[in-house]
Amino acid sequence: MVSDDTLIAIYGPMLSRRQFVASSAAAFQRPRRPNILFVLPDQLRAQALGCMGNTVVQTPNIDRLAGEGVTFRNTIANTPVCCPARAIFLTGQYCHKNGMVANDLRLRESSVTLPGLLKQHGYRTGFVGKWHLDGGPRLPGFVPPGPRRHGYDFWAANECSHEHFKNTYFRDTPQPLPVRGFEPEGWTDLALEFLETTKRDTRPFFLSVFMGPPHDPYGAPESYMRRYDNVPKPLNAYYAAITAIDDQIARLTRSLSDLGLAEDTIVLFSSDHGDMLGTHGAKLKRKPWEESIRVPGIFRYPRRIKPGRSEEALLSHVDYAPTLLSLCGVPVPATMQGADLSALVAGQSRRASDSAFLQIFGPYAGDQTPAGWRGLRTDRYKYARFEDKPWVLYDLKEDPSEEHNLAADPAAAKLRQSLESQLEAWMRRTGDAWKYNWTAPVEDAGRLYKDKTYYSVDEYLREHPQ
Fold this sequence. Notes:
Blueprint: H1 4-11, H2 17-27, E1 35-42, H3 60-67, E2 70-76, H4 82-91, H5 95-98, H6 114-120, E3 124-130, E4 154-158, E5 168-169, E6 177-178, H7 183-196, E7 205-214, H8 222-225, H9 235-258, E8 265-270, H10 290-293, E9 294-295, E10 297-300, E11 309-316, H11 320-327, H12 342-345, E12 355-360, E13 373-378, E14 381-385, E15 390-395, H13 413-430, H14 457-463
Helix pairs in contact: 3-9, 7-9
């Protein structure tokens, strides 16, 4: 082995002994763990972005973000409704495991979560925006410091309010504070406040920015609405809100660059579920169609992800937590059911899941969901069924707009049986069963949240027998 003295002699005056020893030690130090900025608009379907092929909506900054990283074109919401999707992000578990089988339940404080694990490994954690995991009355929306925040320390949020123009938020006291302007602008102000603290606290950070729009009631400031005067309602207002969000993406990414954080920050841009917006005669979410289950899935991480990649591989919500933990060098706990797709995200592997598992556990008259269902989405096929009968089967290659339901087609019987076997395997592997379904209209008329907090549908039904 060549000694330090010999190397210093070779390089002469370029390095002092102290400089050489310091540079050698630095070379063998563990690489700095990346920051994470997780941006999540509510109810944003994948089809409503320019980078996903939409030629009407204006999203230049999101498109630029996609061009600087990797876009997963088949990113799937396993349970396409607000609270269950958010619980999946945090726990890496399907809803029958994490308990969030309905909207407006409370996520159990004992849950092992992504922010909690990152905090244990030295991360600063921050949450800004719509939380929707605390259950109980949505308003005023204060979530106190402690275990109900599931590992987040910095806090500027509310439980759930769809008042996009005159919203309020809370920090660590029950005193409500006004959100400035249109909600995404105000949430971005607060996110930038958090990012500014990196000037004095150099620990890696995990910041989640969960915006309310484009969730209904659809709308945006007039300057954005005017851009879509020729688009029919309500799509015009939906697109206007997305363009307003796009401008906030520019502010966030500019701040990362100005602070020298861009190279070492994973930016994940996604959504909790899509929005039917009248397609197939349906509205809102909880459906198996692409407009409901398919969401944006964009990762930018300049240090490890080559720009301009487009991936057709399946990625689903349950994979987010294990993938992000792995990218940060944090061990993935055995409790998480999702796949660690960090090698796929980084372009180092082609290995991915061959299908995504879908679950809805009960009816909701408010968006015309008739009953709980299970399904799967492969690279080519979509299959969903109720407990007592098949519901939909589509060949997405031949019928990408899902106009020809093959569920009852005798010619598709063999295909249906094959997909049925795959679905049964998913249920066995994850521990799911039809017993987790509920049939009472517990989500309608605010029954689960208007009076008190519940951790399960069974708890509610014991107090309110049907």
